[in-house]
Amino acid sequence: MSNDSERKKANPTHWYNGQYLLQWERSTDPANPGFKLTKAAEEAQTAKWEMLIANRKPREKIPPRLFGSRGRNPPLLLYGWTFNLDYFLEYAKRHRLTLEVSEEARKWLGCATKTFNFGDATEEHYRDEQLLQEMCHAARFVSVGHLRRSTGFVFEIGRPLSLEWDRILYVWTNYDIEEKYFGYGFSRKGRFEAAKKIVDEAMNECLPDGKKSELLWWWSFDNDVNVLTSID
Fold first, then answer.
1. First to last CA, the chain
2. Euclidean distance between CA atoms 140 and 99, whole angstroms
3. How much is the pTM?
4. Is residue 219 scored above 90 in pLDDT?
5. Helix 191-202 vs helix 129-151: angle between axes, to the nearest 10 degrees?
6. Which of 57, 81, 182, 228 has its CA 20 to 30 A from that of 174?
7. What are the angstrom distances between the C-alpha of 200 and each of 18, 59, 60, 96, 197?
8. Taking the domains of the chain in order of start, what are their residue ranges?
9. pLDDT confidence bin for 165, thresholds 50/70/90
10. Beta bridge partners of residue 217, listed in sequence order
């Protein structure tokens, strides 16, 4: 066993409920030769993720100690609305948002003009996995621009500490809230509430029954935390 492997095995953060999280075995799948995590390691990693996430749930408000000011250096929190990667494709399709496309993209999309209307997306587009992925990225680009023009929010995209949601559309963090809230004029009476209402509706109109995206403080996935590291 190498020194690196020995160090990892000796590190208590690489274990959960008595299971080593980096336990590997040789793959028996001819299409994926080499090594893979054992089933026990995969299950333990999932269990530890669930524990970490359960201990860092999103919240409507955060205490002063979690704001990054006056010498404090708390974990990064993102204030925004969560979504999954395919969400904005449905949003762009519903609102018939458009995107200027190149000659090559026109052929790929079967587009008759230099402007592709997402309302014209077909089942054939959806069956092409690579094209679908590109369309999701493009739809997010035009949709977020559409929401920015409607609200005045300067959005950014992050990844929340969540197994349910892929990304978060956030307006500020616990480090720059004061700068952005006042700097972009949201302190003016009614402005923040009006903008929030627009995004609340936009981020929920294409969700299935039972799911809801709310404006909350989420722990960022980009903190120094992963399946191997405790955040307690």
1. 31
2. 11
3. 0.84
4. yes
5. 160
6. 228
7. 43, 16, 14, 19, 5
8. 3-52, 62-219
9. very high
10. 59, 79
- Angular region, 7: left φ>0, alpha ψ -120 to 50, beta rest: alpha
Average pLDDT over residues 92-120: 85
Give the chain as a 3 state SS string: CCHHHHHHHHCHHHEECCEECCCEEECCCCCCCCEEECHHHHHHHHHHHHHHHHCCCCECCCCHHHCCCCCCCCCCEEEEEEECCCHHHHHHHHCCCEEECCHHHHHHHCCCCCEEEHHHCCHHHHHCHHHHHHHHHHHHHHHHHHHHHHHCCCCEEECECCCCCCEEEEEEECCCHHHHHHHCCCCCCCHHHHHHHHHHHHCCCCCCCCCCCCCEEEEECCCCCCCCCCCC
In angstroms, how far is CA 216 from the centroid of its own chain? 13
Residue 192 has pLDDT above 80, yes or no: yes
Query: What pLDDT score does 94 carry?
Result: 96
Q: How many CA atoms lie within 13 A of 208 on its CB side?
A: 2
CA 134 to chain CA mean position, Å: 17
C-alpha to C-alpha distance for 150 and 201, rounded to whole angstroms: 12
Average model confidence (pLDDT) across the chain: 90
